[in-house]
Specification:
By secondary structure, this protein is mostly beta strands. It has no helices and eleven strands.
Length: about 120
Amino acid sequence: QVQLAESGGGLVQAGGSLRLACAASGSIFSINSMGWYRQAPGKQRELVASINTGGSTNYADSVRGRFTISRDNAKNTVHLQMNSLNAEDTAVYYCNAVLRRTWFDTTPLDAWGQGTQVTVSS
């Protein structure tokens, strides 16, 4: 079993900041990439940011320059620093990890957290 535990969501005024955290635990051999997705009401889930083992990052155009993703490979944690938040950032944010549970796994597992609500008031 693999668990992704998220924290850090909440209510913030427009222009404010929040920091999300996610810790992966359980039967994990290696993690290829970790990231954050979000889903607003009535919309599809979308990638916010991701980071691989080497530290290469990828951001959605809508958050580039405002959000920063970071990762601690030794602790299997990923953080998302969100600055200059606006109402369009309101969504449930999900932590994601693409990982292998054992050394002989040939197909990576796509693991998800349960989500944390971020609400930005205008």
